[in-house]
Amino acid sequence: MTIEYVDAGEAFDHAKLSNMPHSAPDVTRGVNYERILQARSESQNWITYYGDYDGKRHSLLDQINADNVKNLKVAWIHQASATGVIASTSTYAFEACPLVVDGVMFVTGWDGWLWALDARTGQQLWRYKHAVPVDVTLCCANVNRGCAVANGKVYMVTQNAQLVALDATTGQKVWQKTIGDVRAGESASIAPLVIKDTLITGSAGGEYGVRGHIDCWDLETGEQRWRTYTVPKPGEPGSETWPADGEAWQRGGANHWVTGTFDPELNLYYAGTGNPAPDFDGEVREGDNLYTDSVVALDVDTGEIKWHYQFTPHDLWDYDSTMEMTLFERDGKKLLAHFDKNGYMFVIDRTNGELQHVTPFVDRIDWGTISRDGKFLPRKYPDKEGEPCHFFPGPAGAKEWTHASYNPNHDLFYVPVADVGATATRRRREFKEGMPYWGAAVEVDVDNMAGSVSAFDSHGEEKWRYRLDMPMAASTLSTAGNVVFAGTPTGEFMALHAETGEKLWSFQCGSGHHSSPSTWSLDGKQYISVPVGWGGWLEGIIPGMSGQGHGAALITFSL
């Protein structure tokens, strides 16, 4: 019997459900590629996901500084007043990074939400709710990490693998395109990235045995320009790293579900890829399994992979490498820094993919070792059916998807570190489309854990560490005011001194942090905005805090 897929239909027009203004100033009309190229120079705004193409998450604003941050107060709070309803093995969370353009804020949420807010007051200008089926298949939480703006539009992906363009003044849908096949287990949570006259997105769903891909779309029409699969088919470069017989490559994972970075001079987009499928069970996918757990450098005009570097060959621990690829320069060289789930910091020549050096950034690593020059030696992994194997770091990694920031003036990366282990017991599972394709039962440690915000220079030397009892699970934000902002799982939003790690200020937000704060200014006043809403794949990060209240607020601070 053939079961037809039933579309969710049209969502309610939320402009008809309240007496809100339902319109916003036309501030994104002038946002284009040339302006995004200079994004950091207009630090009064935050017009793209990382604040700039290089992924540094560093702002030139300095009105809020190490001397006066102790006076920071709440300016306004936006209450999302929404509860995640999509059925999932995990819960909803507020994981977005707010964008701000000339007094208007755009922020996404779970369940297909997007809000446009007055950045002065937090008043809602309009809201959009996408029609997402409540039974859509999601691996690791009902979340969305952000949007993109350009040419009078706002762009977002949805949990049911759609790319949507909205009129930035009204929230009305302009066009919609399909990214992936929800029936096979594909979904989407990435913040799109505007490059030239296109938009870059990626897919999610590797835990369901899908084949990852990166897509390029026309900004105006939504027409697909190119698609690059992150697992090669037989005969393509890298296919020799998969079994020659069988169909392992067709369900190999390697999804790109966190926004990449871009070097306009090299015309390269740096995309991190996820784990292979099935997780943990390597016997059914012998070989290094390219391009899983890798950075791939793509020509943005064609999608061609120019070079790659694999951080965890033949991954048996669920060590995705989707986290940010931070672009920086040192001694006249164009470099890329990456803090991987496997516990190591990698510095790579971003022109050609040549490794410069590798350094551990977390205390406990016993799954194996990677030498300074990149020699990879596994030691512990779940290789026997039904036999438990404990290892550090656990599958959430020594650093989850949330982002480090980088202050080029101090040559310091501020890293949200998780020091927690897990036990994996291999369980062979036959592939069935649309069903979870995990190769083990996993239990993350409920105690014996720690976390920190740690500062490393570009050579991998740790300069300071602010210690926490819980693993960090939120992005950091660096500013020219010599301050680093970071949120904790227990709800504390804090400011640390960028050179020493001294805590200068904190505020209890009432729910844990799992998002990316941004900073901006308006009418000569600097603000810090942070989405607050604990949730997500908690059983993989901090299972002991699964029962904590979620929250659904965006809190903005100023002096």
UniProtKB/TrEMBL annotation:
Co-factor requirement: pyrroloquinoline quinone
Assigned keywords, A-Z: Metal-binding, Oxidoreductase
Entry GO CC: membrane
Domain Pyrrolo-quinoline quinone repeat: 46-354, 461-528
One Pfam entry name: PQQ
Single GO MF annotation: oxidoreductase activity, acting on CH-OH group of donors
Cited NCBIfam families: PQQ_enz_alc_DH
Protein family per UniProt: Belongs to the bacterial PQQ dehydrogenase family.
Protein name, per record: Alcohol dehydrogenase (Cytochrome c)
Native organism: Amycolatopsis saalfeldensis
